[in-house]
Amino acid sequence: MKQNFSFYNTSQYKIALSYSIAIFFYCFIIFFLPFGVDNYNPNHEYTPDFLLEIFIFSIPLFLGSLLNEFVLRPLVFKEASLKKIIFWNVWTLLFLSSIVFLSYNMLGNWHDFKLVSYLGFLVDVSAVFIFPMAGVFFFYRYRSLQNQIAHSVTTKNSTIDESLLVNFKGQGSKDQIMLSLGNFRYGQAQDNYVELVYVENEELKKFLLRTSLSNLSDSLSNSVMVRCHRSYLVNLLQVHAVTGGSSEIKLHIKAVDAPIPVSKSYREATLQNLHKIKNFT
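The chain above was modelled as a monomer; its predicted structure follows.
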C-alpha cells in the first residue's frame, strides 16, 4: 500500500518543525555549551547577556527554517514521498547548518570564517538538528497513523445498473461523452475544463470536457455522482475504501492509485449518499 505523507505538506507541520529546531538548538547550546560558545571556560556563568546572545542564534534559524519550508520546498516538490522527504531533510540539514555558521561568524566578527570550519559546522550542527527533525516527523507520522481509519465498503444489493450510460455534456454541442457507471471513476476541475477519468480496456483514460465542475455536478444531480470537493466529483459506486479521521477523509477508487479528498463542506452529503449505496464492514 502506498504510504501517506500528506501531513508533511501541512502548514501545521512546517511551523512545528521550525519552532522545534530553533528551541531544541537553543536549549542544546545552553545546557551543553558546545562549539566553544563559552570559550572553554570551566567557570562559565549563565548571565542574561549570554542567554540573550545565544537566543539571537534562534531567530535567523527559525526564520530560515520557515523560508526553507514555505518558500523553497514548494518550488522543489508538492507531493511528498519517502525519497523526496529524505532528499529534503538532507538539504535542510545543510541549509540550516550554513545559517548557524554565518550567524556564528557575524556575532564573532568573522573570526572563524574558513572552509575547514564551515565543513566542521555542517557535520556537528547537522548532528544536532537530526533530533528535532526526526522527532517532529515521527510524531506527526504516528499521529497520522493513529487517526487514520480504514473502512472497506461493498455495494449493497440494489437496482443500480453499472452498465447504465451517463451523458457528460460540455458547453459545445459536440463536447460530450457517454460513459457507463461501471467505467467512470471521477472528474477533476482543470481551470475552465473538467477532466473525466474512466476505465477502458482495463486502462485509465481521460477526457477533457469544457464546462465547470459546478455545472457538471448540477446536470448529473443523483446520489451516485457526488461532488465531494471543490475540485472533485466522484462515482460512489466505484469507492472501495474510505480512510481518514476527524480532520480529513479520502475516498479510494477502484483502479485509481491516488485517493480523492473529501472537503468539510461536502463531507456530510458525501457520506450520506455513500451509506445509501454501500455497506461498511
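The two ends are 19 Å apart (CA to CA).
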